[in-house]
Amino acid sequence: MSKQTRRQFLSAAGKTAAVTGMVSLTGGAAMAAQTKKVFVHHVYFWLHNPDSQEDRNKLIAGLQKLAKAAKTIQQCHIGVPSTTNRDVIDRSYAVSWLLFFKNKAEQDIYQTDPAHLKFIEECSSLWKKVIVYDSEDI
């Protein structure tokens, strides 16, 4: 591998950025058409003891264990309410669990996955309320 000069590196980086920008501007619709549609499953948890850091940590640990065990999950995110403050933001929940699946069928499999059922068995005593928002790409 030959060593690049700073000028050669900057020139190559500039060309890459320009091409990437053109692809983004001109190929956005084509890129979107090529993207596979996904099924999004977003779960919000309210704890029986909302001030208990221990309960929140137990729930998060349970979700992390589930994320590793459930085979149909494509991608996931565990979150807590942000400090943002606008009229449209609900920060009353304790933990959110955002999941991406290939399709509805994969999400249906997840619902009966032994790892998911074990998570519910082990952690359901922690929450008083759960709300789920499912959506599919259009």
Uncertain residue segments: none
The figure for the number of domains is: 2
How large, in whole angstroms, is the Cα Rg?
Answer: 21 Å
Task: Please report the total strand number as a whole number.
Answer: 4
Q: Report the structural category.
A: alpha+beta
What composes the largest sheet?
4 strands, antiparallel
Beta fraction: 15-25%
Shape descriptor reads: globular
What distance separates the N and C termini? 46 Å
| CATH topology (level 3) name of the largest domain | Alpha-Beta Plaits
Helix content: 40-55%
Domain Stress-response A/B barrel: 39-135
Pfam family, one: Dabb
Signal peptide: 1-32
InterPro entries: Dabb, Dimeric_a/b-barrel, TAT_signal
Which descriptors apply to this entry?
138 residues; alpha+beta; Alpha-Beta Plaits; four-stranded antiparallel β-sheet; 5 helices; 46% helix; Dabb family protein
Topology:
Elements: H1 6-26, H2 28-34, E1 39-47, H3 53-69, E2 75-79, E3 95-101, H4 104-112, H5 114-123, E4 127-136
Antiparallel strand pairs: 1-3, 1-4, 2-3
Helix pairs in contact: 1-2, 3-5
Domain Stress-response A/B barrel: 39-135
Protein name: Dabb family protein
InterPro entries: Dabb (IPR013097), Dimeric_a/b-barrel (IPR011008), TAT_signal (IPR006311)
Could you explain the architecture of this structure?
With 138 residues, this protein is α+β, with helices and mostly antiparallel strands. The protein folds into two domains: 1-35; 39-136, 2-Layer Sandwich (Alpha-Beta Plaits), CATH 3.30.70. The protein contains five helices and four strands. Strands 2-3-1-4 form a four-stranded antiparallel sheet. Helix 1 packs across helix 2 and helix 3 runs antiparallel to helix 5. The relative contact order is 0.21. The mean pLDDT is 85. It comes from Chitinophaga tropicalis. Pfam families: Dabb. Residues 39-135 form the Stress-response A/B barrel domain.
